[in-house]
Write a structure and sequence with these properties.
The protein is mostly helical. The protein contains 8 helices and no strands. The mean pLDDT is about 90.
Length: about 210
Amino acid sequence: MGPTNASIRVRATIVWIVLAAATIGPIAAAAWSPLVAWRGPAYIVACFAGIAALCLLLFQPLLASGMIPGISRQQARTTHQWVGGALVLAVVAHVGGLWITSPPDVIDALLLRSPTPFSAWGVIAMWALFISAAFAAFRMRLRIGLRFWRLVHRLLATVIVGGTVVHALLIEGMMETVSKAGLCLLVLIATLRAMARVTGSRAHNRAE
């Protein structure tokens, strides 16, 4: 006996409430940070772009594995692509704002010689994201096989998520600690759950 319509609606409501709380909470908490009062506009934009990128990252594995209720597989696939583009723009805005604030610090971070440990993790995640986006944009033109693409995309996604979470957790900035940790935890859980779901689905299809 399958789930009833009522139980499906309840599950969908719970999922959307959790997603809304996990993304709106950290943004609202950052808006009340004391740092906002004495930081420049470029720094504030950079910080909120980074927070937005972390929030968008929560949706990517859920969309890729079709785990968001109320969205068809085709809609989820298309939305995954658009969110990926928005994620790239958010990271560019994040780095660009920090560049305006302090170019030497950004140069040191990009060259992996920054004394702050979180910088290296952020840069590694950034380049993995850019490579993943380039692969997605030119996959058909380069005639990259589906199996190879899935393998590369999964490896890059692991680097993106892992690097971003470590980067975020190590920073002591505008984000409030508890809401940030909760969002990072959900991103990790969503990514692991999505990978397990996709792997299980493909194994089941091969068995049939």
